[in-house]
Design a protein that fits this description.
This protein has about 170 residues and is of the alpha/beta class. The protein is built from six helices and seven strands, in the order αβαβαββαβαβαβ. Helix 4 packs parallel to helix 5.
Length: about 170
């Protein structure tokens, strides 16, 4: 007798003959971010909702072309090293993440515009190294500036204004 616990509820419903319905409008991602998953995973069957197409949805917390809806920053001189828990960390990348957080904090102090920053890494040693360096910003209480550094699993389901992914 085999168990069906390894299969999701939706998998079981499909197996029983229920039809699949693809939700075809996304209301969260900026169109420049949703472009890749829409084409790569959904064969362009997903549309961007009207809210994400509005100019007001385009928010920028730092000036400059590098800080648009998304950016990839290549850390050329970074070196991976083994941290605690046999996990990888890259201290040059940690320094770059910290400089971005510091820039966001300086801009917050100038504008007083509320901002929450989430820093995510799949490596426990990298998460800890970043937490140590940005601790002064994450402990700023009584302001509208917040920083949280978490693992990928720890962040799941979370939302912040700015997301930095340290790979």
């Amino acid at each position: 007798m085999s168990s069906c616990f390894g299969r999701s509820l939706f998998g079981r419903l499909v197996q029983l003959g229920h039809k699949k319905h693809l939700l075809n409008v996304q209301y969260i991602m900026h169109p420049s971010i949703s472009l890749f998953p829409k084409g790569e995973f959904y064969k362009n069957r997903i549309l961007d909702g009207p809210n994400v197409k509005q100019r007001s949805y385009e928010r920028s917390f730092l000036s400059g072309k590098m800080y648009g809806s998304y950016s990839f920053i290549d850390i050329v001189n970074g070196k991976e090293e083994l941290g605690r828990w046999h996990s990888q960390k890259n201290m040059v990348e940690v320094a770059v993440v910290c400089e971005i957080v510091a820039s966001l904090y300086r801009e917050f102090n100038r504008t007083k515009k509320k901002v929450s920053v989430g820093v995510i890494s799949p490596y426990k040693a990298q998460v800890n190294a970043i937490q140590e360096r940005v601790g002064e910003y994450s402990e700023v209480s009584g302001t509208d500036f917040s920083v949280s550094v978490r693992s990928v699993d720890g962040f799941q389901g979370g939302e912040d204004d700015v997301i930095i992914i340290s790979c």
